[in-house]
Structure formats: C-alpha cells, structure tokens
Amino acid sequence: MTFLSANELDDGAVLEADVVVVGSGAAGLSLARKLGQQGEKVLLVEAGDLTLDGATQGLYRGEQLGVEYYDLSAFRLRYYGGTTNHWSGFCQRNDRIDYEGRLELDLPKWPVDDTELDPYITDAAKLLGLSGAPTDPEAALKTRNLPVQDLLDSRSSILRSKIFQFSFDRRLGPRFSDGLKQSKNIDVVLNLNARSIELSEDGGSVRHVSCATMSGKRVTIKGRFIALCCHAIENARLLLNSDSVHPEGVGNASSHVGRNFMEHPHLFSSLFFPTSAFPVIYDRKFLAARGQNLNLSMTDDTLRRERLLHYYCRFNPVFVDQDADDALSSLKGDPWRAGDMAFLQDVAEVVSGLGGIVQRAAMRRGFWNATAPVYRLEHRIEQSPNPNGCIVLSDKHDRLGDRIADLDWQFSDHDVDTFERGQRLIAKELAALGMGRVALEPIDRSRVEAEAKGHYHHIGLTRMSDDLASGVVDRHCKVHGVDNLYIGGSSIFPTAGYSGPTMMIMGFALRLADHLSERLNA
Ligand SMILES: Cc1cc2nc3c(=O)[nH]c(=O)nc-3n(C[C@H](O)[C@H](O)[C@H](O)COP(=O)(O)OP(=O)(O)OC[C@H]3O[C@@H](n4cnc5c(N)ncnc54)[C@H](O)[C@@H]3O)c2cc1C
Predict the structure, then answer these.
(1) Which helix (DSSP H) or strand (DSSP E) does residue 85 occupy?
(2) How confident is the model at residue 241 (pLDDT cuts 50, 70, 90)?
(3) Ligand 1 binding pocket mutation candidate from 44, 87, 177 (most atoms within 8 A of CB)
(4) Which whole-number Å values give the CA distances from 365 to 272, 285, 360, in the listed order?
(5) Which of the listed residues 146, 251, 371, 423 has the most CB atoms within 10 Å of its CB?
(6) Which CATH code fits 1-62+72-130+167-258+458-522?
(7) How far apart are CA 353 and CA 325, in angstroms?
(8) Shortest-distance Cα residue to atom 27 of ligand 1
(9) pLDDT single digits (tens) 292-310
(10) Which atom of ligand 1 is nearest to the CA of 56?
(11) Residue extents of the structural domains in the chain
(12) In angstroms, rounded to a whole number, what is the distance separating the alpha carbons of residues 2 and 43?
C-alpha cells in the first residue's frame, strides 16, 4: 500500500481503481481493508492528513436550525481514521426487534435481518478486539464475580437489563495501518476532498468523482465502483451538492436524501431514593469502577405492547449535595487568607456534607458496596425517523466553494412520549418491586427540546429501503437508480435501534466488500 498526498499530484490529475472508497473512518477502513484482502484494487480517498489540520476540519462547519446540537465542525473528525480517532468504543449489535419495523412508531422494516448481518457483525466485533467479550449482563457480571441473582430481570415481567461491550482497541486508523501497508492492492490518497459525484448523461452510473485539495488542485477519481463512507451528514451533503444531472441531487428522486436524522438522545430527570433492596450493580459509578456497565431497559414485549421506542435508564449516584460539592472544589483550588469569610463558609458546607464526600471517595476506590442515598436518573432513547429532522444545504459555501450543510435536529411526538412514559413505567415498576421511590419530574416537549443531548451518533439521512419511493439505497447499500454508487456508514440505517452505531457500520461495510467482490468477479 502507498500513502500518497494529493498535494504532490499535478493539477488535473486522474486516478483510477476498481473500487474507490471515499473516507477512511470506521466504514471506509473496514471496507477497503477487506476488499484488499480479497484481491481487489482499491483507492482509498481521504480528505485529511494523518493528523488533524484546522482548515480541512473546518469544511465540516454547519449551523443549527433546530434543537441545539453539538458543534458540527468539532465532533466528526476529518482526517485518516475519521471519528474513530476519538470515539468512546461502546458497542452492541441490534436486537431482532430492530429489524422488524413497527409502523405505529414510524419505524420501517429493514430490508436485511439479523440472520444475514450477524456473521458480519461478529467479524466486526473481532476487528474491535471484542471476541469473547460478554454480550449479556449475566456473563458480564460473572467475569467480575458480581451477584448475577441481583439482576431485576427475573423479578419483573417488564424490565430487561442490558449492557454494552467496550472496545479498548478502537483507534482504527493506527490499528489498521500495519495490515494495510502490507497490502499490494490498496493505495491511500490523503489531503483530497471529494466535492461532487458526476453522473453519466442518463444519470444511471457515476462517471467520476470530482475532488480538490485545500490549495485548490483539482483531481478526478474514476472507479468501476464508488463507495461513499464520509460519515452520515457528509454522505448526504455530497449527494445533494452533486446536482449537475439531477437538480435535486444524486439518489434523491423521492426526496429522502438528507432526511430522517436520528440520534440516541439522553435526558437527566428525577431523583430516585432506593431502599436497601435496590441492587448496587445498577449503580453506574460502582460498575464503571469495575469496568462494566448495566442499564435498565424493557423487554421487547413491553416495548411492543406499550408502543415505545427503545428506552433505557441509568442510575447516577448523588452522594453530596451541590453546595457541599462546589465548596469542596473551591477549597481544593483556593488557599486560605486571613479574614477570608467565604473560605470559612466553604469549610462549613464541606463539614455538613462530609458523610457523602467520604462515601463517594470510598465508592471510587472500590471500598463502598452499598447503594447511594439518592440517584439522578438518566433516560436514553432511540429516536424515530422523522423526515423533518434533516440537513439543509445553506447558501453559504465552504473554503472549497461547496454549499455547507446545516442541521435541523427535531424530536417527534414518539420521542417525547417514550421519554415521558418510559420514565413513568420504570418508576412504577421500581416501586412495585420495593426498590425505592422516584420523585417524578414532569417531562414534556419543551423540556426535551431544552435539555436532551445527543450521543454523537448520526443516523439516517440516506436510508436503506427496497423501494425507491421510501429510501435512498437498496439492501446492498447501492444508491437506487445509480448502478455503481454505494454508501457506507450509519446514514443507511432505517432506524436507530438501541446500540451505538459503529460496530454495525463496520459489519455493513464488511458485507458490502463481499457484494462488491462478487460483482467485480461476476
Ligand atoms: C465523542 C464521540 C464518542 C463516540 N462514541 C461512540 C460509541 O461509544 N459507540 C459508537 O458506536 N459510536 C460512537 N461514536 C460515533 C462513531 O465515532 C461514528 O459512528 C463512526 O466514527 C462513524 O464512522 P464513519 O466511517 O461513518 O465516519 P468517520 O469515522 O467520521 O469517517 C469518515 C471519514 O471520511 C472522511 N471524509 C469526510 N468527508 C470527506 C470528503 N468529502 N472527501 C474525502 N474524505 C472525506 C473523513 O475525513 C473521515 O476520515 C462517537 C462519536 C463521538 C464524536
């Protein structure tokens, strides 16, 4: 494999390969690596360099049109390895219910199911160093000698405990580099931004991809097959900005490109006062100190019966009241000066909260094995697809002259309802089981819009459907109506499910590699 910088190419250069993969993040690296192993000639085109550079990163700029979201130019990373350079590594595969479709919640059925995808997700898990990692709470607790009998699942007909697996081996750029360098089939060109997909006159295939360096050199990329793996928002932006044959953009005949943006939002609401019966294994900090996580979710039957999206709850221990905590922080950073009354007030606050401060320190060091006096509940949901949650091309342009994508993040009624009823259901069940009482705080649309935050998971925007009328790509990730254009990444997911997207993204990319190899060798 060669790493080449596009800055060294001539203006007007043309590069060619059997498969062109645009973007070297979770999707692009997994796809290119496997294709190379299968003997296919691959050109991996990456906008950034081997490290972050401000000007290229700035091409991700975008404004907020709806509910306030994170800075779009900060959290996706535009260099080799993509956003996997700083993702957290929590993984889980979809549950069977996620593929089924529940039209009463606007959740479409996926064209593929777990039987078809699971072998690829298992391979993705291996790449993330997760082979053998427990996938269910019982196994996870056993690895730490924690009491499996404390799980609430067997005592409740509606509750189900769930965990995430955690990848320690998650910086995919450096992790894949050695393997890629040994491959004779893959070339990587850095510092090259794909700007538009140029179609043949009839719109049925891609002729080439127009690219540019930050200094304005133009480069043309040709391939028998093109796979866009530029992260969800950028995948959709590229299709919309490619308007030379179809004014509405590529793959957008039924107006689905850039729509149905979904996240896994979370919201802190309500205090929970546990009884001594509440198992400490649900304490977020207690389990985190032991390298595990455990969330209280609901059975699939409950979700179906109650018409709820995926929902789960985390229990964040509160040992110390906020005033004592603030006072402790200020004492730590501020030495006493003669006559300093504020200092003495801080000392008094800390003394009044001393019991909680000691308990918290003991929990951190693994000496405290009892529940906290009170928990702040954290509710997390999947969002339902909502066409109004979308990206919109602005009339402002980036440094290369392309229209930037603004984000309109929105919550559907199903989202708000799941937060609200999910919280109430959990509270009622905890009380019925004798676990404690929740001092319920009301959740309504205005609170969700003001306080809910995302998990940096961008899902939807080029969704998969067998039917051109309701999606952008088909079951093989091929853009409807364009014979040689494919998309990798969570933009193709029809629904958000419970899990973090990345392991699933990699599973889909590995499956796409098999499909492209089949087509190349047909
Ligand atoms: C702080 C944080 C924590 C996260 N934690 C988790 C987690 O715990 N679990 C989980 O599942 N997910 C998590 N994620 C999400 C995860 O990072 C993404 O799902 C994943 O990286 C997406 O993979 P991708 O290949 O689609 O995009 P990326 O990894 O972003 O890769 C896209 C690549 O395309 C390149 N590119 C973009 N545009 C162009 C262009 N026009 N031309 C050429 N190249 C281009 C980029 O430079 C980049 O290399 C987290 C994200 C953040 C920000």
Answers:
(1) none
(2) very high
(3) 87
(4) 23, 11, 9
(5) 251
(6) 3.50.50.60
(7) 8
(8) 231
(9) 899 999 999 999 999 999 9
(10) 47
(11) 1-62+72-130+167-258+458-522, 322-371
(12) 10
